[in-house]
Amino acid sequence: MSQNTKASLLRAPGEVRNMIYKAMIEDLPDERSWLVVLSLAGVNKQLRQEVFSYYFTHAAINMASTLDLDELEILLDTVPNQLGWQVITKVGFPDFLETALSRARADQLMLFCQTATHLQELTFNIRLEHMSIN
User: Which domain of life is it from (predicted)?
Assistant: First the structure.
């Protein structure tokens, strides 16, 4: 197939690309959708901007572990704020006590949330079996 006849996602109208990004977020499990986001972001600058902007605006970012937070912070520090930190609207902690293993780690999680300046939804799940009452 010649270079001119290859299908290109960028040739599709923006509305169609947004439908693809929406399906990527809604139809794939979190860990798979994140891999697709990273793959698309690596194609070129335009796709990187579009996919990050759409993903961080529409997806709920779930911090299931401290590793998730570290990796996400590294990624967000490599993209312009208007594509990352400033467009995150939803953050969740599926097991907050497991993720925030220490006071310092809990402070880091809260700092992450404060850095996401357009955050609209913050969800904490606390599993009672992890709590100890003295």
Answer: Eukaryota
Instruction: Enumerate residues 6+ apart whose C-beta is below 8 A from 93.
Output: 62, 63, 99, 100, 109, 123, 124, 125
Q: Which candidate, 34, 17, 16, places its Cα nearest to that of 25?
A: 34
- What's the rounded Cα separation, in Å, for the pair 59 and 61? 6
Distance, in Å, from the CA atom of 105 to the CA atom of 98, rounded to the nearest integer, reads 10
Answer yes or no: are the C-beta atoms of 77 and 110 closer than 8 Å: no
What would the pLDDT profile of 7-26 be if each residue is shown by its tens digit?
688 899 999 999 988 988 88
pLDDT at 69: 82
Residues in the chain: 134
